[in-house]
From TrEMBL:
<dbReference type="Pfam" id="PF01957">
    <property type="entry name" value="NfeD"/>
</dbReference>
<feature type="transmembrane region" description="Helical">
    <location>
        <begin position="59"/>
        <end position="77"/>
    </location>
</feature>
<protein>
    <submittedName>
        <fullName>NfeD family protein</fullName>
    </submittedName>
</protein>
<feature type="region of interest" description="Disordered">
    <location>
        <begin position="148"/>
        <end position="173"/>
    </location>
</feature>
<keyword id="KW-0812">Transmembrane</keyword>
<feature type="transmembrane region" description="Helical">
    <location>
        <begin position="6"/>
        <end position="26"/>
    </location>
</feature>
<keyword id="KW-1133">Transmembrane helix</keyword>
<feature type="compositionally biased region" description="Basic and acidic residues">
    <location>
        <begin position="159"/>
        <end position="173"/>
    </location>
</feature>
<dbReference type="InterPro" id="IPR052165">
    <property type="entry name" value="Membrane_assoc_protease"/>
</dbReference>
<keyword id="KW-0472">Membrane</keyword>
<feature type="domain" description="NfeD-like C-terminal">
    <location>
        <begin position="93"/>
        <end position="150"/>
    </location>
</feature>
<dbReference type="InterPro" id="IPR002810">
    <property type="entry name" value="NfeD-like_C"/>
</dbReference>
<dbReference type="InterPro" id="IPR012340">
    <property type="entry name" value="NA-bd_OB-fold"/>
</dbReference>
Length: 173
């Protein structure tokens, strides 16, 4: 038993290095940032071992650093990781609000549109019949079907983006 203790005192940094790498490897599988925090604790304990700290102090350093990382750093890191995913829309969500062109008449049950360079099955969201060649807006995606509605222009704008005085669509010449 004394030999094991002597070995740990002399080569304790090897144990902490193995723990550091092991926790880092487990973190790559879980992606939960828990084992990364334990890995940071093992790295701090390895530094204490290299600086010839006694074994009990190395264990205390590991526990304190890992606990502080879990309590203080992990929640903030998880918050930042999850905040990015809310702000970024997925592939399908990105299509909502885009314009498409009807390739054939689109009704309440059938039709096709050209959306983002691809041909999609489509149906009218309000049940109206939309003729071929009309520009439509995608309101939602249901499975592999785009639900579309005719584009509505609330107020006609001139070429500079501002409404004309008379509200007409003509640009200023």
């Amino acid at each position: 038993m004394q030999e094991l203790y002597n070995w740990l005192v002399e080569y304790g940094w090897v144990l902490w290095l193995v723990l550091f790498l092991g926790f880092a490897a487990i973190e790559t599988l879980t992606l939960d940032l828990f084992f990364a925090m334990l890995s940071a604790g093992a790295l701090a304990a390895m530094l204490a071992a290299v600086l010839s700290a006694p074994l009990f102090l190395q264990v205390v350093v590991f526990c304190v650093v890992a606990l502080l990382m879990i309590v203080l750093v992990r929640p903030a890191a998880l918050k930042h990781l999850k905040a990015g995913s809310k702000d970024q829309r997925s592939n399908i969500e990105r299509l909502i609000g885009d314009t498409a062109v009807t390739l054939e008449p689109v009704g309440s049950r059938t039709g096709t549109v050209k959306l983002a360079g691809d041909t999609w099955t489509a149906r009218s969201g309000d049940g109206s019949l939309l003729p071929a060649g009309e520009q439509v807006a995608v309101t939602r995606i249901e499975g592999a079907t785009a639900v579309v509605e005719p584009l509505r222009t609330s107020q006609t704008r001139s070429t500079d983006g501002h409404p004309d005085e008379d509200g007409s669509a003509k640009g200023r010449q």
